[in-house]
Design goal:
Blueprint: H1 10-23, H2 30-46, H3 48-59, H4 63-89, E1 92-93, E2 106-107, E3 114-118, H5 124-137, E4 141-145, H6 151-164, E5 170-172, H7 177-184, E6 190-195, H8 197-208, E7 214-218, E8 223-225, H9 232-244, E9 256-258, H10 264-278, H11 295-306, E10 311-314, E11 318-319, E12 324-325, E13 329-331
Parallel strand pairs: 3-4, 3-6, 4-5, 6-7, 8-9
Antiparallel strand pairs: 1-2, 10-13, 11-12
GO molecular function: aldehyde dehydrogenase (NAD+) activity
Keywords: Membrane, Oxidoreductase, Transmembrane, Transmembrane helix
Protein name: Aldehyde dehydrogenase family 3 member B1
């Protein structure tokens, strides 16, 4: 499926349409919000196979991972919002001093307006739809910006969203850097961005022009500390599972492990045993191991591995053309190593 980028001229029009729809008040009704939240669930439920196929095409992701990480989370969030929205929107007693006793002030939650949600390529389904559900529950209009590196998914979402949700209040803008730059020139009432710190700084700088409130969910290096008293076999399996899921493309995946020197060799051996148990036919031939999103991303990782001064215990293979990076364990890595640079 090819991805058609949104025209730069159409981007302000989409923003204005969403704003007018929100100002009309049709998102104010709790009943309307509940109906739209339910529709998000049906959007996923009715098109599960198409979404799984899209994730497979974009990321080489096994179907089971999409079921576990994407569908399950979206269903749970939709159910929680649907069941809780009455309590979330109810007037609440406000703290006040004795002189205001007879006025009995109350606080009533209010929508913000038009919300922009920008998601990365690793889990675009739940990183777009979960914020969408929350914003709908809050009575907001929403514009979604899917990642350009997942063309099959992003095209599918643009096709399906107007079939299930109000097409004026909830819209999709597809594109790359020029389109995102145009989006960030506009005034939003809240921006939700998930991704890396470099782009987050660009988003934050754009938001500062209008003092737009931001929610930033950013990846990090994510260390694992291993106590010498733990079960190394179980620990190795858990660490490796967290690292190889979605071919390691998870913002909270374990990045490096700190272990006492006296158990390093035993822990590496446990990781190797876990690797061989997970992928008896080898990860490259396994239906349970995905691929890196683009050749450029794979080439970048290859450069990091080639630049390490540590010891490659196993793995290290990179096939840029196939976007394949083998699960790799490197020992004796210092803080200034290439693998610790980003």
């Amino acid at each position: 499926m090819s991805l058609t980028y949104t025209s730069l001229d159409d981007i302000p029009k989409i923003h204005d349409t969403a704003q007018r729809a929100w100002l009309s008040g049709k998102a104010k009704s709790v009943a309307f919000r509940k109906e739209q939240i339910a529709q998000v669930g049906y959007l996923v439920k009715d098109n599960k196979q198409r979404f799984k196929d899209a994730m497979k095409a974009d990321l080489g992701r096994p179907y089971l991972e999409t079921e576990f990480f994407d569908f399950g989370i979206v269903y749970a969030e939709a159910r929680m919002a649907y069941d809780s929205i009455g309590a979330w929107t109810a007037a609440q007693s406000a703290a006040f001093s004795a002189k205001w006793f007879f006025m009995r002030p109350r606080g009533v939650p209010q929508p913000k307006g038009v919300v922009l949600v920008i998601a990365p390529f690793n889990y675009p389904l739940f990183l777009l739809l979960v914020p969408l559900i929350s914003a709908i529950a809050g009575g907001n209009a929403v514009v979604l910006k899917p990642p350009e590196h997942t063309p099959a998914f992003s095209a599918l979402l643009a096709e399906l969203l107007p079939k299930y949700l109000d097409p004026e209040l909830y819209q999709v803008i597809n594109g790359a850097v020029p389109e995102t730059t145009k989006i960030l020139e506009l005034q939003w009432d809240h921006i939700m961005y998930t991704g890396n710190g470099r782009v987050a700084r660009i988003v934050a700088q754009a938001a500062s022009k209008y003092l737009t409130p931001l929610t930033l969910e950013l990846g990090g290096k994510n260390p694992v500390f291993v106590d010498p008293k733990v079960d190394l076999t179980m620990t190795a399996r858990r660490v490796l599972w967290g690292r190889v899921s979605n071919a390691g493309q998870i913002c909270m995946a374990p990045e490096y492990v700190l272990v006492p020197e006296e158990i390093q060799d035993a822990f590496v051996a446990a990781l190797r045993a876990a690797h061989d148990a997970f992928f008896p036919e080898g990860p490259k031939n396994s239906a349970s191991f995905g691929r890196i999103v683009t050749e450029a991303h794979a080439a970048r990782i290859k450069g990091l591995i080639e630049g390490t001064k540590g010891t490659i215990e196993f793995g290290g293979e990179v096939d840029v053309g196939e976007k394949y990076v083998a699960p790799t364990v490197v020992s004796n890595v210092r803080g200034d190593d290439s693998l610790m640079s980003e």
